[in-house]
Amino acid sequence: MAADDSDTKATGAAPPAGRYAPSPTGPLHFGSLTAAVASWLQARSRGAAWYMRMEDIDPRRAVPGAADDILRTLEAYGLTWDGPVLYQSDRLDAYADAVSDLKARGLAFDCGCSRREARTGPAGPEGPIYPGTCRDGLPEGRSPRSVRLRAGHEEIAFVDGVLGRRSQRLDRDVGDFVIRRADGCYAYQLAVVVDDAHQGVGEVVRGSDLLLSTPRQIHLQRCLGLPTPSYAHVPLLVDANGDKLSKSEGATALDRRRPAEDLVAALRCLGQAPPPGLDASGVADVLAWGRRHWRLSAVPACTTLVWDAGRDLAEEA
After folding, report:
1. What is the pTM of this model?
2. Domains of the chain, with CATH numbers?
């Protein structure tokens, strides 16, 4: 669960740092802004650091110029960060070291399965579970393609700051999962764990589309001997068809000419009840109100909200 202010004040410890980690696959949309606002306010309302990470690890998905556009958009909305931006494309050696360490200790193994072959196991919450074909060694005639982390048998439980207690057994629900892909790219699950530890992130506030990733990340943190942050997943904003806003038909990028209005709308989506007329103020005033009144406990405890831009309204799906 998210750290309580009173605990921080009582111990004199610095509040846990937060972060925002967009992928440069296109411009920011309102759903991404809402997640960023939640993360920023959770950190800044307690005087914590807030770091920026650009998750550009997959060059095939990165759009030229998108990273800079995202950063300029965040600046236009007053969401400033501490320190330099961390680019995952500069961190490949760190990911390679983590994979080598896991393999050396028998916690990860080479897999020779194609994507189709890896999806022949029983159904799980996110699709077919890896059947364990290469877990005890590559079958004769196969060559290494990807690297997988061995799934544990224990229940991995955590208390989400918005959604409450969550748990999963990886061997039953996911199976041994990829940490380095067949194309040589390092998997998101590995990179995010290594980078959170590197940046000293103690509290992760992000969209609920990443909720099911959390047990895998906790398992990786334990395998690598890294600290586990607290987690809070805010509702994912979707359109009337249930599609994520960035993928919805006719989706448009944020309009930097109306940042105060968008920030107020994001606050409403996050259950913060900003007063009438706040959107007529400037960005600094909106964010100042947000810092003073931010309550993570007020965020709707659901995984998706339907966003109606025409009515400036979000409703539980």
Report:
1. 0.92
2. 16-90+235-316 (3.40.50.620), 91-230 (3.40.50.620)
